[in-house]
């Protein structure tokens, strides 16, 4: 499934990249599992897995929004075959380091892993998400989705705004 | 003309999101034409920042050679008013 709208937010998303009730040992384990899945689906190169883990250690991606904590792990474009986003709704929140504030933890309920291939149009995608996530009810509604398809549809609507 | 350097890990992802949001706020508040923006990797900040009036980044930087303001609020909206106020103060100096 590809979203290509007027803003060229051309990020691929597919039920295969979505996880509900996602369980992991910790932040790094969650990132590893999601990255390995994207590699299995051919979206990213094998090198993406170690690159995104290294990147998270150096530049952590936990973000505290009013409604929920999220994480947006991502890494350099050369590890990506296809621009895509993978989403995991966590069964139990996981503690991530907050972006920009070493030593501060964020209780993350949903992870958006970004596989960015070409810098610009896909960064617009990030900008759109950040704007939408600040709106009342948006993150809560995504997190409370009962199925992959429900989440996918809600996400699709956000991107078309 | 004030020069603002916007930085993140690779100088691509979150810094672009911060840059576009900040640009809109600055322009909406009458700063249009009074500033220039540049973007870089966090690793380049120590060497580049000396020729800038302000650095806004999404991660901490150890050796910034100009005033520094954390820019996470442009992503999450939390504490945005404070962040914006600090930036205005720097631009008016």
UniProtKB/TrEMBL annotation, chain B:
Domain Phosphotransferase system EIIB component type 2/3, first and last residues per copy: 3-62
Annotated keywords: Transferase
Record bears the keyword Transferase: yes
Keyword Transferase: yes
Pfam families for the chain: PTS_IIB
Identification of the protein by name: PTS system galactitol-specific IIB component
Classification of source organism: Bacteria, Bacillati, Bacillota, Negativicutes, Selenomonadales
């Amino acid at each position: 499934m590809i979203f290509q709208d007027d803003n060229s937010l051309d990020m691929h998303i597919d039920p295969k990249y979505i996880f509900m009730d996602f369980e992991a040992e910790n932040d790094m384990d969650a990132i590893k599992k999601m990255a390995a899945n994207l590699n299995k689906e051919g979206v990213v190169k094998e090198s993406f897995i170690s690159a995104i883990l290294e990147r998270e250690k150096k530049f952590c991606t936990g973000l505290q929004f009013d409604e929920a904590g999220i994480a947006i792990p991502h890494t350099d474009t050369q590890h990506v075959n296809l621009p895509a986003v993978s989403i995991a709704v966590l069964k139990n929140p996981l503690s991530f380091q907050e972006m920009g504030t070493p030593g501060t933890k964020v209780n993350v309920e949903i992870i958006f892993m970004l596989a960015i291939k070409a810098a610009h149009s896909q960064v617009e995608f990030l900008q759109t998400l950040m704007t939408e996530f600040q709106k009342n009810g948006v993150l809560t509604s995504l997190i409370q989705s009962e199925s992959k398809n429900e989440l996918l549809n809600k996400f699709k609507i956000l991107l078309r705004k | 003309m004030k020069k603002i350097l916007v930085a993140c890990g690779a100088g691509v992802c979150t810094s672009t999101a911060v840059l576009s949001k900040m640009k809109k706020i600055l322009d909406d508040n009458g700063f249009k034409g009074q500033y220039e923006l540049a973007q870089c990797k966090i690793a380049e900040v120590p060497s580049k920042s000396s020729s800038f009036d302000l650095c806004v980044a999404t991660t901490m930087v150890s050796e910034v050679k100009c005033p520094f303001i954390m820019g996470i609020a442009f992503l999450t909206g939390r504490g945005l008013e404070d962040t914006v106020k600090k930036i205005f103060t720097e631009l008016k100096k």
